[in-house]
Automatic annotation (TrEMBL):
The keyword Repeat does not apply. Residues 82-159 form the YdbS-like PH domain. InterPro entries: YdbS-like_PH (IPR005182). It comes from Paraoerskovia sediminicola. This is YdbS-like PH domain-containing protein. The chain crosses the membrane at residues 35-55, 61-78. Keywords: Membrane, Transmembrane, Transmembrane helix.
Length: 171
């Protein structure tokens, strides 16, 4: 009988957390900006539900209950989503990680970058944040980093554009 004990298995690393990567968080102001948008969207059905329930029929209070439930659920979910959104710049590529239940990790090689956009709507501008959108030859690439401060977004855009140009030139 041989005395061979199986080696203890090494804990499996998550495919969403590569070793040696230092992640950068997005701005916490993104939480407040998303709350404003959700509040504006939910305001119309809330007011309509209250008006209909008081003037027409009491069963319309169910609309108010649903709107309040969605608001509470969003209040719980949005901060977690923002904390889960991170990005990392490596030597050859950019990693963008997001999601809680349905997680995704997008890896964009710098040599595939065609251009980089910085976008900010009225709510994002009010909170001093912007989105950095990466464009590659593949239309399926969804590499966007939401909720960066204006200065951070501009610096990231410039760094990514420079790295993309250097990789395309073969440097």
């Amino acid at each position: 009988m041989s005395d061979s004990t199986p080696a203890s298995p090494t804990p499996a690393r998550s495919p969403f957390d590569p070793p040696g990567v230092e992640w950068t968080s997005v701005s916490p102001r993104l939480v407040r900006a998303r709350f404003v948008v959700i509040g504006l969207v939910l305001l119309v059905p809330l007011v309509a539900g209250v008006v209909l329930a008081t003037l027409v029929t009491p069963w319309c209070w169910s609309i108010v209950v649903v709107v309040v439930a969605v608001a509470l659920w969003s209040g719980w979910l949005v901060p977690r989503q923002v904390r889960a959104t991170r990005y990392a710049e490596r030597d050859d590529d950019l990693l963008v990680r997001r999601g809680i239940m349905f997680r995704s990790l997008v890896v964009v090689p710098y040599g595939r970058l065609q251009y980089v956009d910085v976008e900010a709507g009225p709510v994002a501008t009010r909170f001093g944040i912007a989105n950095v959108q990466l464009h590659t030859a593949s239309p399926a690439t969804d590499a966007a980093i939401p909720g960066l401060g204006h200065d951070d977004a501009a610096l990231l855009r410039d760094r990514l554009a420079a790295r993309g140009e250097a990789r395309l030139a073969g440097l």
